[in-house]
Amino acid sequence: MSEARIDRVVTRGLVGAGRPGYPGDGVELENNVWIVGDDEQALVIDASHDAEAIVAAVGDRDPLGILLTHGHEDHVNAAVEAARMLDTHVYLHPADLFLWREAHGETLPDFELADGASFLVAGVDLAVAHTPGHTPGSVCFIAPALGTVFSGDTLFQGGPGATRWEYSSFEQIVESIRTRLLTLPSATVVRPGHGDSTTVAAEAPDLEAWLARGW
């Protein structure tokens, strides 16, 4: 078995088309899709906008599943098609099913994610950490052997993810970050759902500043 690696696929697409609060054609977003594996196996983290790009990045590797960090449209809108093309399964925390249904209606994910569950790919464990706040079912995937955490929209370079919706909670996302992410080794690389990566060491000193500003 070859050495495990992390690939990043940046996808772009429109979300919110025809929905209240959005322009008629929607808003364009750029997302990170992360693929963990080696030359033989791959796990996909988030399935955003472009199923064909995701499938191409997996290539001829055995696709072990599509793991979703949360149910927002821009993270799940390519999940059903990518899973069909790859002949694999989709995993989502059940607390975000109400958001998933906005994109996919009655077509459900295959399996539920649970806090503490783990996935093995290329000899590396990815542990599921439930980190509510951005959404009720937000999770992060921690890979100690790779020195990384895939943080979805929970933690970015510069602070927590957005909590502007009625189902979100700034207090909860900060608690999730404080107890589940900032407790990881300081050198841990944080790979978010949008934008550049950061580290636990870079973000931890700013916790009090986030609390002071309230976002």
Count of discrete alpha- or pi-helical segments spanning 4 or more residues = 7
Unreliable parts: none
Q: Classify the helix fraction into a percent range.
A: 10-25%
Radius of gyration: 16 Å
Number of strands: 14
The CATH architecture is 4-Layer Sandwich
**Can you tell me the overall shape?**
globular
Helix/strand class: alpha/beta
Number of domain modules: 1
**Proportion of residues in extended strands:** 25-35%
Q: How far apart are the termini?
A: 44 Å
Protein name: MBL fold metallo-hydrolase
InterPro entries: MBL_Glyoxalase_II (IPR051453), Metallo-B-lactamas (IPR001279), RibonucZ/Hydroxyglut_hydro (IPR036866)
Domain Metallo-beta-lactamase: 30-194
Pfam families: Lactamase_B (PF00753)
Topology:
Layout: E1 5-15, E2 27-37, E3 41-45, H1 51-58, E4 62-67, H2 73-76, H3 79-86, E5 90-92, H4 97-104, E6 111-112, E7 118-121, E8 124-130, E9 139-143, E10 148-152, E11 155-156, E12 159-160, H5 170-181, E13 189-192, E14 198-199, H6 200-203, H7 207-213
Parallel strand pairs: 3-4, 4-5, 5-6, 10-13
Antiparallel strand pairs: 1-2, 2-3, 7-8, 8-9, 9-10, 11-12, 13-14
Helix pairs in contact: 1-3
Q: What is shown here, in short?
A:
This protein is an alpha/beta fold. The chain has helices at 51-58, 73-76, 79-86, 97-104, 170-181, 200-203, 207-213, and strands at residues 5-15, 27-37, 41-45, 62-67, 90-92, 111-112, 118-121, 124-130, 139-143, 148-152, 155-156, 159-160, 189-192, 198-199. The chain has one domain (5-213): Metallo-beta-lactamase, Chain A (4-Layer Sandwich), CATH 3.60.15.
